[in-house]
Amino acid sequence: MKFTEMLEARWRNQNTLLCVGLDPNRSRFPEELADSPNAIYDFCCGIVDATADLVCAFKPQIAYFASEGAEDALKRIIEYIHANHPGIPVILDAKRGDIGSTCEHYAREAFERFKADCVTLSPYMGEDTITPYLKYEEKGIFLLCRTSNKSGDELQMLDVGGERLFERVARLTAEKWNRTGELGLVVGATYPDELAAVRRVAPDIPLLVPGVGAQGGDIHAAVTAGMDTRGAGMVINSGRAILYASKGADWREAARQAAEATRDAINAARGA
Ligand SMILES: O=c1ccn([C@@H]2O[C@H](COP(=O)(O)O)[C@@H](O)[C@H]2O)c(=O)[nH]1
């Protein structure tokens, strides 16, 4: 099944645009996992089970696993999601971009080794760095466009001949690069005006929107600016605000409550 079909099905059937980010940080784990050798796996699967019916996607960030030498746990967590919650797409947040011959290996890593349904990429090196990923025709790709961090504007807001660089990325994605129909854009909830600008250039492209929760992005402003004409089209990520809602024995329930509140705030803003 294509990535966009999986997303569409979750948006429609589960009525949710929420994505839970799986960014496991040992120093913030619940006390009961402190001595567990499988803490990363157990924590992520606990969060997955507690929130699965509330999400349209899960987004593990590879750095949290690689820094711990826990790529095997990442692989098993993705297998766990596919086996126990079929139909929920997994977006591997890897942001890998390089020359084409190297990207063939990054694409294999994401789609064959980890079996992700979608990956995040930097478009900074241009189209031939995206091409190797497009060979996996059913897989999704979210290209960094207007990131949620403060310093993103040092480059992304530059005027490149009548439009800003992030708008050029959005235009190229919508009009030239999207040969599989599976491309999307990363646009931070922290910049609703730019979200609206991206939506004008790319009316039908899915947007991965980090920046709500711990980064303080305004859900109502982001949803109003970024939803498509059907009131969908967004994958709104929240990580820390959900993952670390409690360190106590109630960590699963607390994560679920935080996820539910976020999903409901998103739905209220889209009038769903
Ligand atoms: O512009 C971007 C692109 C990616 N991210 C990633 O999203 C999550 C955000 O986590 P929170 O805990 O909800 O802040 C994290 O994995 C980032 O690497 C982003 O924040 N901004």
TrEMBL record:
The Orotidine 5'-phosphate decarboxylase domain is annotated at 17-255
GO BP terms in the entry: 'de novo' pyrimidine nucleobase biosynthetic process; 'de novo' UMP biosynthetic process
UniProtKB keywords? Decarboxylase, Lyase, Pyrimidine biosynthesis
CDD domains under this entry?
Answer: OMP_decarboxylase_like (cd04725)
Signal peptide start-end: none
Report a single Gene Ontology molecular function. Answer: orotidine-5'-phosphate decarboxylase activity
Q: Which Gene3D superfamilies match?
A: Aldolase class I
Q: EC no.?
A: 4.1.1.23
Reaction catalyzed: orotidine 5'-phosphate + H(+) = UMP + CO2
Q: Give the pathway listed in the UniProt entry for this protein.
A: Pyrimidine metabolism; UMP biosynthesis via de novo pathway; UMP from orotate: step 2/2
Q: Show the InterPro entries listed in the entry.
A: Aldolase_TIM (IPR013785), OMPdecase_AS (IPR018089), OMPdecase_type-2 (IPR011995), OMPdeCOase_dom (IPR001754), RibuloseP-bd_barrel (IPR011060)
Q: Which domain of life is it from?
A: Bacteria
Q: Which residues form the active site?
A: K95
The record ties this protein, via PANTHER family, to:
OROTIDINE 5'-PHOSPHATE DECARBOXYLASE
The UniProt entry's sequence similarity note says: Belongs to the OMP decarboxylase family. Type 2 subfamily.
Q: Which NCBIfam families match?
A: pyrF_sub2 (TIGR02127)
Which protein are we looking at? Orotidine 5'-phosphate decarboxylase
